[in-house]
Design goal:
By secondary structure, the chain is an alpha+beta fold. It has helices at residues 14-31, 44-50, 61-72, 88-96, 114-124, and strands spanning 4-6, 36-41, 76-81, 104-106. The protein contains 5 helices and 4 strands.
Length: 142
């Protein structure tokens, strides 16, 4: 683990939060001197917009433009979609961001919130996570 963070982003949509999180992570990575970066996101839309495979809405144009400027500074950049189940630690930090009032940055696994730390440990042990789909029960008439 190099860095993990949770930051309250206030009002907005989930996709705005995804873009802001990507900007924060890339900005920090560039400041630390990293030039070969792989960005993983559980948002297929964000990945498509970053890779210019789909048209983004005008409402996030400024955010996405700033993100693209950061990407332009990276020597080697790759952006991948991964399912949320393959990124439980990041999903846990996303949920944690709703409980905090100021940004929190973690530089080692011991600093992580309790639930996130547990997911990170499972990741380090390469424990498989399964994607579950809820099924609706159909009630039989009497």
């Amino acid at each position: 683990m190099v860095l993990a963070f949770a930051t309250p982003l206030g009002d907005g949509t989930s996709i705005q939060a995804e873009v802001e999180a990507a900007r924060f992570g890339l900005s920090w990575s560039l400041e630390m001197g990293y030039k070969n970066i792989i960005l993983e996101s559980d948002s297929q839309l964000l990945v498509a917009w970053i890779m210019n495979r789909a048209q983004h809405p005008w409402s996030i144009d400024n955010q996405l433009r700033k993100l693209q400027q950061l990407i332009g500074q990276i020597k080697q950049f790759k952006c991948n979609h991964i399912y949320r189940e393959a990124n439980c630690a990041a999903d846990s930090l996303s949920k944690h961001s709703h409980k905090i009032t100021s940004p929190q940055v973690y530089f080692n696994s011991q600093q992580l919130p309790k639930e996130t730390k547990a997911y990170h440990q499972l990741d380090m042990q390469e424990v498989t996570n399964f994607r579950r789909r809820k099924t609706k029960r159909i009630k039989e008439p009497p």
